[in-house]
Amino acid sequence: MDKKKLILICDDEEGVRESLNLILGDDYKLDFAHNGNDALQYLKKNNPDLIIMDIKMPQKNGLEALKEIRQQNLKCKIIMVTGYQSVETASEASKYNIFEYITKPFESSVVKETVEKALKNM
To answer: What's the CA gap between 103 and 120, in Å, rounded?
Structure first.
C-alpha cells in the first residue's frame, strides 16, 4: 500500500484551509499552518512533499516564508495561492523556484490537477 504524500497547507483563512481539506483530504495527508511563521516552525520538524501557501497573510507573508524556505535549502515543491495576483508578485515568487501559482477563488479540478503534477514522479 502506498504511503500518502504529505502536504502542508499554509493559509490564514479557515475557509480556504477547509476547502483544500475537502478537495485533497481523501488522497493526501494534510497538515495546516496559519501563517509563514507557523509554516517555518513546522518545517523544522517535518518534511512535506508539497507546500500550498497563501501569499497574503499576517505576521509573515508567503513570499517572506518562501524566501526563508529556499535560504534553508529545503527542496519541497511549493504552490503559491493568492487572491491578489500581480505581475510583481508572480515575478518575485518565480525567483524562488515555485512549482505553480493558483489564484483564488480556485476550482477544485485545478487544485487537484496542479497537486498531481507537482507530486508526479516523487
So the answer is: 22
Q: Exposed/middle/buried for 55, CB within 10 Å: 0-12, 13-18, 19+?
A: buried
Name 100's bridge partners. Answer: 79
Q: What domains does the chain contain, in order, with CATH numbers?
A: 6-119 (3.40.50.2300)
The span from the CA of 109 to the CA of 40, in Å, is 28
Q: Where are the alpha helices (DSSP H) in 1-122?
A: 14-24, 36-43, 62-71, 87-94, 108-119
The C-alpha cell at 75 is 527542496
Which of 101, 40, 24, 69 is CA-nearest to residue 7?
24
Q: What cell numbers appear for 79 in the block?
A: 504552490
pTM of the model: 0.92
Condensed to tens digits (0 to 9), the pLDDT of residues 16-72 reads 999 999 999 999 999 999 999 999 999 999 999 999 999 989 889 999 999 999 988
How far are the Cα atoms of 58, 71, 85, 114 from residue 98, in angstroms, in the given order?
21, 13, 15, 12
How far is CA 51 from its chain centroid? 3
